[in-house]
């Protein structure tokens, strides 16, 4: 009988048993950010395709809430304070989880060429 360490929610931390050792699943979490959602979706599709080709499980791309920054400026230089102009900048975000990555997955992701304008944050 295998004894399982549990977290504060009561979930089992060890996910599978191999050769008498209990091992936890590995996961790579990739978070993408961009101002243009088309480039972001293309990049996410490239990452998912590369990970699936190398034999890893993929969860995503999961769309995260879009961050919206609004900047208000005066139209006139000296007076007419009531006349203003607003500009906004939207930051689109996606989340991709790669479950049980192989060394080939990591190599393929390192060699992947993504367009400029996409910010990538990787957590192991």
Automatic annotation (TrEMBL):
Highest taxon of source: Bacteria
InterPro entries: Ribosomal_uS10, Ribosomal_uS10_CS, Ribosomal_uS10_dom, Ribosomal_uS10_dom_sf
PROSITE patterns: RIBOSOMAL_S10
Keyword field: Ribonucleoprotein, Ribosomal protein
A cellular component term, taken from the record's GO annotations: ribosome
Sequence ranges assigned to domain Small ribosomal subunit protein uS10 in this UniProt record: 29-123
SUPFAM superfamilies for the chain: Ribosomal protein S10 (SSF54999)
Family: Belongs to the universal ribosomal protein uS10 family.
Function per UniProt: Involved in the binding of tRNA to the ribosomes.
SUBUNIT field: Part of the 30S ribosomal subunit.
Protein name, entry field: Small ribosomal subunit protein uS10
Gene this chain is encoded by: rpsJ
């Amino acid at each position: 009988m295998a004894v399982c360490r549990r977290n504060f929610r009561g979930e089992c931390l060890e996910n599978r048993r191999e050769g008498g050792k209990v091992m936890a699943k590995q996961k790579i979490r990739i978070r993408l950010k961009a101002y243009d959602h088309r480039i972001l979706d293309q990049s996410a599709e490239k990452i998912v395709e590369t990970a699936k080709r190398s034999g890893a499980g993929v969860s995503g791309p999961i769309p995260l809430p879009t961050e919206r920054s609004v900047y208000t400026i005066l139209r006139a230089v000296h007076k007419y304070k009531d006349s203003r102009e607003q500009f906004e900048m939207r930051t689109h975000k996606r989340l991709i989880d790669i479950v049980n990555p192989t060394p080939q997955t990591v190599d393929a992701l390192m060699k992947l060429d993504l367009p400029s304008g996409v910010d990538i944050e990787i957590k192991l």
